[in-house]
Design a protein that fits this description.
Elements (H helix, E strand, L loop, with lengths): L2 H14 L12 H10 L5 H14 L3 H7 L1 H7 L6 H19 L7 H5 L6 H12 L8 H10 L7 H11 L8 H11 L26 H38 L6
């Protein structure tokens, strides 16, 4: 996309949603960090279901360590990879106590040094907790950037680097939230809802998905054709049966 198109792309997403944020529920940076770690290969909705009761009693790394790995495993067992995630959450909580005075660090390097924390998780925390202009690239962001032509790349690192380069002010802080939400609710993986997309004319994706009512027309036509074909087949079978019956009923010729 050209520079003016990129600006217009984000201007429209911002107009639709002026104050985007993560859908993971938390009340402080530590809970946010834990929630993001738990969200790997899981939906935000599933994480929220597990963390709502958990976060009512656990708000600090010390409380998590005291809670223990086995109870934590039980509390998050509805989330994928819960065994590994429970181990990482306890380990990162211990590291926060030992190395950071129980506080969540504010640099990417320090965050990524924590167990279970990768670049995407660090970027989310830096952006959401501390307001840094970072670009966390998850599966939604990666898809939207490649499908629309906004910031195509073969790897998440490629996409992140391009976003870092092309996203203009005043959209940089909230850019990854807009892209995540756009990918989650409009530019969906299996069937993008192009008919209600605010950036449809800027998007490089083809062919555009038509509205449901238009997609229903060809389906209805196919149903009618199948019904017509079935009727013809049935009619042909009936005619063949009648001919066979007449043939059997004819008297045999005399020798």
């Amino acid at each position: 996309m050209k520079r003016d198109e990129v600006f217009e792309f984000f201007r429209r997403l911002a107009e639709n949603n002026p104050s985007p944020t993560t859908e993971l529920e938390s009340t402080n940076p530590y809970q946010l960090l834990v929630a993001v770690v738990l969200s790997a290969q899981a939906t935000d909705a599933s994480v929220n279901i597990a963390t709502r009761p958990l976060f009512q009693r656990i708000k600090t790394p010390r409380q998590m360590v005291d809670f223990g790995e086995e109870p934590l495993r039980e509390a998050i067992k509805t989330i994928g990879l819960f065994n590994t995630k429970a181990k990482n959450v306890i380990a990162l909580s211990e590291a926060l106590i030992e190395k950071h005075g129980g506080e969540v660090p504010r640099t990417r390097e320090e965050l990524q040094a924590l167990p279970g924390v990768g670049r995407k998780t660090a970027n989310v925390v830096l952006n959401t907790a501390w307001g840094e202009e970072t670009f966390a690239v998850d599966t939604h962001v990666f898809r939207v950037c490649n499908r629309t032509g906004l910031a195509p790349g073969k790897t998440v690192e490629d996409v992140e680097a391009k976003l870092e380069k092309i996203v203009p002010q005043p959209f940089r802080r909230d850019a990854h939230h807009w892209l995540i939400l756009h990918g989650r609710y409009t530019c969906k993986a299996r069937l993008p809802e192009c008919w209600r997309c605010p950036v449809i004319d800027l998007c490089r994706y083809k062919p555009k998905t038509p509205p449901p009512e238009e997609r229903a027309k060809p389906s209805a036509a196919r149903t009618a054709n199948r019904a017509s074909s079935a009727a013809r087949t049935a009619k042909g079978r009936t005619a063949a049966k009648l001919r066979a019956n007449r043939s059997r009923s004819r008297p045999s010729r005399l020798p």
